[in-house]
From TrEMBL:
Primary subcellular site in the record, as a coarse category: cytoplasm
Keyword entries, A-Z: Cytoplasm, Cytoplasmic vesicle, Endosome, Lysosome, Membrane, Mitochondrion, Repeat, Transit peptide, WD repeat
Location of the region described as Disordered in the Swiss-Prot/TrEMBL record: 285-319
Source species of the chain: Macaca mulatta
Name of the protein in its database record: WD repeat-containing protein 81
Entry's family note: Belongs to the WD repeat WDR81 family.
Presence of the UniProt keyword Methyltransferase in the record: no
GO cellular component terms, A-Z: autophagosome membrane; cytosol; early endosome membrane; late endosome membrane; lysosomal membrane; mitochondrion
Amino acid sequence: PTVASRHVARNLLRLLTSCYVGPTRQQFTVSSGESPPLSAGNIYQKRPVLGDIVSGPVLSCLLHIAHLYGEPVLTYQYLPYISYLVAPGSASGPSRLNSRKEAGLLAAVTLTQKIIVYLSDTTLMDILPRISHEVLLPVLSFLTSLVTGFPSGAQARTILCVKTISLIALICLRIGQEMVQQHLSEPVATFFQIFSQLHELRQQDLKLDPAGRGEDQLPQVVFSDGQQRPVDPALLDELQKVFTLEMAYTIYVPFSCLLGDIIRKIIPNHELVGELAGLYLESVSPSSRNPASMEPTVPSTGPEWDPQGGGCPQDDGHSGTFGSVLVGNRIQIPNDSRPETPGLLGPISGVGGGGLGSGSEDNALKQELPRSAHGLSGNWLAYWQYEIGVSQQDAHFHFHQIRLQSFPGHSGAVKCVAPLSSEDFFLSGSKDRTVRLWPLYNYGDGTSETAPRLVYTQHRKSIFFVGQLEAPQHVVSCDGAVHVWDPFTGKTLRTVEPPDSRVPLTAVAVMPAPHTSITMASSDSTLRFVDCRKPGLQHEFRLGGGLNPGLVRALAVSPSGRSVVAGFSSGFMVLLDTRTGLVLRGWPAHEGDILQIKAVEGSVLVSSSSDHSLTVWKELEQKPTHHYKSASDPIHTFDLYGSEAVTGTVSNKIGVCSLLEPPSQATTKLSSENFRGTLTSLALLPTKRHLLLGSDNGVIRLLA
């Protein structure tokens, strides 16, 4: 969920704005069935713009992420982004709109409408004040502003207006009349107020007097409510084009139906808007294509018409709310009545009929988010909320000890864990002679236990190495003999036995892609290379060279595959060129047994030893660049994250050391509730920033 939110959802949200940029994206699409002008009363604007078609796939992907991880995605990630999109600019003076911000407003309103459909009733009521103050009021402040012009002019403002009406009407439908009066009266009243202001400006007939005013001074106009507001005369034309009689009608009809009598309390100027709507009806009626179809839907054209639509004549066979015919107690819906008479009371028919219009998914008022197995709750939710707030530039590994998942199943100590390159699965090898493949998808609230997808049982001894050959996607595991097997079927593809059973293999490493070789060291300090595509050995190199440095304990291959470094039980390290087989350098690196080596980009080697130290080397430089000591126990397992090493000791302490300047070291003790037993192995998931910790009791834990 964290990766999806940070890398996928964030970019999709940014993409949404681009869907509405530019005047072409803001044209209304031509629908095949031209609906009569009166369908404007429907709450779901039936006039999509081109941008809505372009943004369709983006929205469905965003909603898919919400379906997967549940409601928190809507309230904690999408809503804050919406309020960021619509936030007004600086507090001082009117904020200028650019075309990106204008598109952002359209995107924000569209996304809010999608979100509200999926919110449960309790959540909607909880965040209603936030929606009102962080979304609706800022949008309305741009929309009804007398001083801010839209870069694309009246067209963009009209679309934003239609979308906002839709959005507010949807919220009103969801929460009911009483709640509208409590929570939404301010946005609704602001919306209606603009008509009065324009009406008064029209009566006052603003004179443009360029000489009389200063350079940047806008004329102040006193309105009938006694307030002075600055007005930009150049904008009046744009405003007149947007807030026409038709817009008054489009806004008045849904709200008079939705609010009923409350409209008188909430909206002081509702009579004026009602009159404008009436004027529009009069202007439209004679010119309409099919006047007969209008009769049942036009009550009296004053503001005094019955808000519930009771004035509709019911005797013409059409019931005014449904556009359908009652036959006995059955409702017959005539096929052709739908595009002809959508009715003024579109919204109410939606409530009565259980769905709006054709009842298609796009028109539902409320939809359940399906319960997904990956829904966020408990620790996962807390961790996810923290992670989406962290800036993406932070290159440090932070260990919070949040327990996310447990993987029980091994009956012996876990000797090694290795995530696959995709980080969707990981492998673990144990003393119980099995290798298990586990899925890493999030389930439950942090306490859930996950079963393995596959158990490989062909080994005869305790397993000390497991890894993935990236190029052919095979798994390599070693218990003294190497097994190469298929992680999808669990079938053994090849086993490599040591040539002499008395000299078993002591260390194994896999070559990075595109190589398909495995390198292994046996107890007589011979290094062998095997290519899994062909039988037999590729190369065989002797590492001892006259000295007796002991057993090879650890092998590491550089990320380029050009060199291999071997660490011996005497603390000696040997660097070998894989292409020529020449020993580039051998040096006494530690005083004790070498426990683990990793090779990093930029020819850097990191080694840990039983002399309690973790050392960072450059391949061909004599002196180490960093040297860390752990106080109580040697660092027997570590992994790398960027330029940091994450270390683990037997006393269950997790440390983070920097490989760059300046040196820094921090340690955390694992608490007993998060991790039981003794830490035996550790692996880090770099993209997800999680740790996999294996224990001597056979349980693996995923912690963040």
